[in-house]
């Protein structure tokens, strides 16, 4: 009775057919009023001019998946383009056969490329292959650790050298600055003494004040005039960039850090710069 009931039931309202009954070419039957309701709700949905059966399975071309007719009429595929399952199957099967040929061509190309590799790579037992892979990974890890450790050591050494050069530079700077200040004071002393003597002569308050200041200034004048040589005129005295650069790169080949083909700092220019720095440092040492 259940089987008979399913045959005599409308798939839309799930009740026994209410006459009149419509028989579609796909062998699915419906109450006329149920189909008319679907037509009204879906604004006469059809595919290629034909009504879309709500029971027949379809192929959703938008989502590339099979769906039932109800999903097309009432579900999330309402606005999607659909096709018959049989048509989609035929078209996809032909396309899939072409895809297989493309994969075959790719496989044959890979096989030709693999012919240049040692045959041992493809004849080793699985455990030996795994060992080779493990050894490769281990060597890569060890090399990476070596690079990190040695790189850190190099950076530490360079930082230490930089700190030493900075301390040396600071001492040199202070020493040369004090020397320049001393020479400047020696050159300034006669002018200052002259101004003091002139002011005393022209603007002394009384005889006692004049005599006191006169004694002090005469002593200053005596020390100034008894100087063995005239104060040395200060000359331009700078810190040698070349010298410090030479110390910084001692034992290093800076051309190794110049990217090949870089127009802004070509390797030849780096070599020439390093050569000039070396020559300049030697000339300065000879002058000293």
Automatic annotation (TrEMBL):
Sorted UniProt keywords: Metal-binding, Zinc, Zinc-finger
Region (Disordered) location: 269-288
Keyword Zinc-finger belongs to the record: yes
Claim: Protease is one of the keywords in the record: no
Record domain RING-type: where: 10-57
PROSITE patterns noted in UniProt: ZF_RING_1, ZF_RING_2
Stated name of the protein: E3 ubiquitin-protein ligase TRIM50
């Amino acid at each position: 009775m259940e089987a008979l009931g399913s045959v005599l039931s409308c798939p839309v309202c799930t009740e026994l057919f209410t006459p009149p009954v419509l028989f579609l070419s796909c062998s699915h039957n419906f109450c006329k009023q149920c189909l008319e309701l679907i037509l009204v709700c879906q604004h006469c949905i059809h595919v290629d001019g034909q009504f879309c059966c709500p029971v027949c399975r379809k192929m959703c071309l938008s989502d590339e998946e099979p769906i039932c007719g109800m999903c097309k009429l009432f579900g999330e595929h309402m606005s999607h383009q659909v096709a018959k399952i049989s048509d989609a199957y035929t078209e996809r099967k032909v396309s899939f056969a072409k895809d297989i040929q493309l994969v075959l061509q790719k496989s044959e190309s890979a096989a030709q490329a693999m012919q240049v590799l040692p045959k041992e790579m493809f004849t080793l037992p699985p455990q030996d292959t795994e060992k080779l892979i493990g050894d490769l990974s281990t060597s890569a890890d060890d090399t990476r650790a070596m690079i990190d450790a040695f790189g850190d050591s190099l950076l530490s050494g360079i930082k230490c050298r930089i700190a030493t050069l900075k301390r040396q530079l600071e001492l040199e700077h202070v020493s040369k600055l004090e020397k320049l200040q001393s020479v400047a004071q020696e050159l300034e002393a006669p002018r200052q003494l002259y101004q003091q003597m002139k002011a005393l002569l022209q603007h002394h308050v009384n005889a006692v004040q004049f005599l006191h200041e006169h004694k002090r200034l005469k002593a200053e004048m005596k020390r100034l005039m008894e100087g063995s040589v005239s104060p040395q005129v200060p000359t331009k005295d700078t810190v040698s960039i070349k010298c410090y650069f030479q110390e910084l790169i001692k034992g290093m080949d800076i051309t190794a850090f110049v990217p090949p083909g870089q127009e802004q700092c070509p390797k030849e220019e780096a070599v020439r710069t390093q050569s000039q720095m070396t020559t300049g440092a030697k000339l300065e040492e000879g002058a000293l």
